[in-house]
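Supplementary Methods, section 5.1.

A reviewer requested that the exact input to the structure prediction be made available. We therefore reproduce it here, unchanged from the version used in the analyses.
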Amino acid sequence: MKAVILAGGSGTRLYPVTISINKHFLPIYNKPMIYYPLSLVMLLGIKDVMFIVNPEDLDSFKKLFNDGSQLGMNFHYKIQSKPNGLAEGLILAEDFIKDDNVFYLLGDNVFFGHDLPKVLKEAKEDVEKNGGAYVFGYYVKDPERFGVIEFDEIGNVLSIEEKPKKPKSNYAAVGMYFYDKKAVDYAKSVKPSERGELEITSVNEMYLKDKKLKVKLLGRGFAWFDAGTHDSFLEAGEFVATIEKRTGLMIGCIEEIAYNNGWISKEHLLKLAQPLKKTEYGKYLLSLVKDHERS
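The structure derived from this sequence is encoded token-by-token as follows.
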């Protein structure tokens, strides 16, 4: 399986902050926003990643990540000339995805949960084994802002609707999706919505029509932040800060995950930590090596 992270867009909901900087570089507490979705990809053991980016941000992404080799990964980039909708990212990544399955994520979504890696791994394995699509639902107070999932009394998915004026439930489809190789063809057949965008919900509706859509609800043990608004951006940062201060462990630390996955050596981790040694982030990376040596 490969991963595609949608990291373009104009970030208008965060204006004026994002007039001069891509929102995915903004800090969620102590690390760039884009680290959080990337960390989920890494936790699943996926090494091949494509970032869909704005033309003016390509150099900045390459400066931050280069080709991914410093993490033992393979990074690719594709330019999205203008934000034409979430489904367009699948079309742009066609040559990268080819005949593979894909983990598709939004670059401004932050997730946390003790069993989250387990839940994602089960979804990944289900799509790899059985095909289809796997999406996740989360209870929200303002479902009209999201793609809304409707269920029957025994939990079967009846409909999934993009930003409905009269939502049929309070369950929003969050910004991460597992798709089989049909996803690109489905995305190509999507027609622009009333907003003029290629909606990812339309892709999910096609899987639902084919009886190939599965939904997993993320309950009280999980946190989800669509960090594309000022309030949710602030809430995400405060949440991450609270968890990290109380546990002493970092959320979304990509160097730590690469090290734990065996993708980089102890020596390489020390090399990555060296320029950051005066920061708490750098000190944390150095502590990982010390803790490993003690054990």
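The radius of gyration is 19 Å. These observations are discussed further in the main text.
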